[in-house]
Design a protein that fits this description.
144 residues, alpha/beta, 4 helices, globular
Length: 144
């Protein structure tokens, strides 16, 4: 069950970080923004800023597992990011969530919607963050 307040979805990329925000009831996720990834420390600060601006109580960070379900290099980076985020945001719930295939799904969704290639490149990380967050929100529904 989510606490009162919004949830923030995070899709960590090497170049950009996608952010998505839930509605106040925690039912739907919408893309929020894409920020240039400027290193882990600045990435944590950008997420913390979004948490404070939007009254976020829960942060969901995508965990890019290998197809086998094991951790690879990117999953280890996500775990380190979450450790830093937890230290930076005491009192905020921070969780990892399996994000396998979300970027590919975001790409297909945007192509199906006839979104231009240049626009897709600029927004795909936020759409992937929304898919990660929506998946997590849907999994919480039976607990509400």
């Amino acid at each position: 069950m989510t606490e009162a307040g919004r949830c923030l979805g995070v899709d960590l990329g090497r170049v950009r970080v996608g952010l998505a925000l839930s509605d106040p009831l925690g039912l739907t996720a919408q893309p929020l923004q894409v920020v240039e990834h400027v290193g882990p420390r600045r990435g944590v600060e950008r997420v913390a800023q979004a948490v404070e601006e939007h009254g976020v109580t829960t942060v969901i960070v995508g965990l890019p597992l290998l197809l086998s379900g094991a951790d690879g290099e990117r999953a280890k980076e996500a775990r380190t990011f979450v450790e830093r985020l937890v230290r930076r945001l005491p009192g905020i719930r921070v969780e990892l969530w399996d994000e396998r295939f979300t970027t590919a799904q975001a790409q297909r969704t945007m192509i199906d919607a006839s979104v231009r290639r240049s626009t897709r490149k600029e927004t795909i990380d936020a759409v992937a963050a929304a898919l990660i967050l929506q998946s997590w929100l849907d999994a919480q529904a039976p607990r509400r």
